[in-house]
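sry for the spam today, last one i promise. struct tokens for design, 132 residues
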């Protein structure tokens, strides 16, 4: 928009709020489901901070009791990458994935980033998610 390109200033997911960094990556109802997905794997709840830098700090503190802290620490990047790819598909290609597909893409990306290979064995997926 700064360069004069006409773009919708509304969030491509909820279409209710302005698309800001904090809304898109932290507070939108869609991205909140992804954050909740990972906290639920660990059986914890987490209070979302207002800003992205606070979220990273809080997330890393929350993960101090994690079995595999390095995996816990990549979760924000996985969520943001998943949301960013989906957002760009909606913005530039007018293609929208349903929520269950977005969640699946997020988990697949997480497992791929953890193991550096495509994981299609459900047992391996469960082991990776269980290490959080
Ligand atoms: Zn939104």
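last one done:
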């Amino acid at each position: 928009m700064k360069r004069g390109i006409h773009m919708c200033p509304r969030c491509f997911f909820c279409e209710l709020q302005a698309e800001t960094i904090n809304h898109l990556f932290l507070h939108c109802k869609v991205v909140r489901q992804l954050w909740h997905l990972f906290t639920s794997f660990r059986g914890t709840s987490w209070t979302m901070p207002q800003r992205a830098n606070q979220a990273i700090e809080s997330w890393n503190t929350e993960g101090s009791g994690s079995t595999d802290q390095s995996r816990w620490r990549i979760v924000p990047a996985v969520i943001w990458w998943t949301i960013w790819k989906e957002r760009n598909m909606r913005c530039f290609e007018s293609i929208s994935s349903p929520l269950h597909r977005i969640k699946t893409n997020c988990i697949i990306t997480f497992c791929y980033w953890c193991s550096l290979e495509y994981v299609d064995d459900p047992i391996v997926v469960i082991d990776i998610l269980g290490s959080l």
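The pocket of zinc ion is lined by residues 11, 13-14, 17, 23, 28 (CB under 6 Å). ok im logging off now
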